[in-house]
Task: structure prediction
Amino acid sequence: GLSAAVSDPMPLSTFSDNASFLWRAKLRDYVTPAPYIAETLAYMDRHYPNGGFVFADVHRICAAALTEDKRRVQRWPAGVRLRDTGRNTATRRYMAVRCDGFFALAEGRAAKAVDLLGPVLDQECLLGGSNPQRRIVRETFDAARNKAAFQTPSTLGDPTQCPSISLALKANLPKPICRA
Result:
């Protein structure tokens, strides 16, 4: 990501690149300095204060899930669901599930994230945008699945015994990394 204070060619590109970069760092367990997250959230609030533009919302979910600001964390998923009920479209329903899945992973509930994201993996085409931006759901699911394998005692030695990852295994996805 590139700081918006240094370069701001297009608000959408600056925001989406930074939010997805920070989220991907989170997926790999890198500790992101709080000022980077705060700067990205402030930029988001300045340029995309309201939801409804799906591509920006995809990245708003990533950025909002990174914060430890409990008010923001509680407000964002509720806002996505509120917009979902207003339009009741497949995209909005997908966004609500995605939001819940990303927030679950950010809160350390990896098995819940797997349960939420697994059934919607094939709906990423609803997002539009570029392949890297659509792949972030798959990357989040994979990270959650691997983390769930370590969080769930029943997966020790046999990942098929964990209900949270059985969907992934049935779909012939790569097996999660498990402790032997």
